[in-house]
UniProtKB/TrEMBL annotation:
This is Sigma factor regulator C-terminal domain-containing protein. It comes from the Bacteria. The lineage of its organism: Bacteria, Bacillati, Bacillota, Bacilli, Bacillales. Residues 23-106 form the Sigma factor regulator N-terminal domain. Residues 178-321 form the Sigma factor regulator C-terminal domain. The chain crosses the membrane at residues 36-59. Keywords: Membrane, Transmembrane, Transmembrane helix. InterPro entries: Sigma_reg_C_dom (IPR025672), Sigma_reg_N (IPR029101). The keyword Nucleotide-binding does not apply. It holds the Pfam family Sigma_reg_N.
Amino acid sequence: MSDNNKTKNENEIDFMSSLSLQRAVKKSKRIQTIKYMLIAILTTSVLLAILFIGSHYILTKRINNQDHLYHSIHGANIMLSDTSYSYNLFSVEAETTYTKNVGDQSIVWDKQTEKIPLFGRSEILEKGSGMVEVNSIDDELKRYVRYNNFNNERKIDFYYPTLSYDYLPHELDIAVTLDENKLIEVALSFKEPMTLTEAAEKLGHDHVNWLWVDTTNVAQMEKMEQTLDSDSVKTKGGGGAFGFAVRPEVPYSEEFGPLFIQTLEQLKENRSTVKEALKGMKENTQATNGNIRLNGAVVSGTPAELEKFQNLDFIRASVLGATIDKY
């Protein structure tokens, strides 16, 4: 009986130690390991794909798709030309180019690189025109002049109709004396706000690039008059002005007003400055039956083309802007 058990145990030992079984076991283990690796790779790939697609979706939602819309009504004679996006897993970098129309030509006015994270605030990484603005007094022009660091061209300023100033520039008189092959941008400020119909009659349509819309109310003007003590802080920088571009092929009229207001309404939820602008316009248009009012305009062209704007009695001030060669 004991001999039979011994033989049986020896057979079992021989079976477990057989080379073919060991190979089968090793092969099974390799297959199992490969399966686990494939499952891990597949699972990781799926999770990364979901993470990337989800990140891309959120970042795309975070990108302000209304930038083009906003810049169509903000920034005097400054247009958003194009934007390119570079996506990372947790952020996207947007490089935007801005242009100005001067006469029949377009110049690059600024370039800006902005980092938009998946969560948190956006960050401006680089701005061609400069992150910090430096004003310098120009003895000849008798006012503070601001320059664009990107191309060293003058920035334009507007003068409010109702505020008092120590000095009102009339630089249109300089513009018309420049070389005939120059193209010049000039910001015109009106003595009194005008409706679109009045501006079309008095200013005309030729060589008019942009119209400055009045977005202030009486309380704001009174506060500015009482608290601001120098001309340099009482002016409205062109880059922060509300208005819209125009061209002679499509003459502006009162029909442009509702479209402008409609654009502001679309943007007000995400921009506090737009909310304030709408609030001011609601008050100041009561006297014009809801028609928007204009405080100024941007015109451009050759010295000869700008002569038509000289000696117009409704112009309170004029400021030189960008000046480029025609050829």
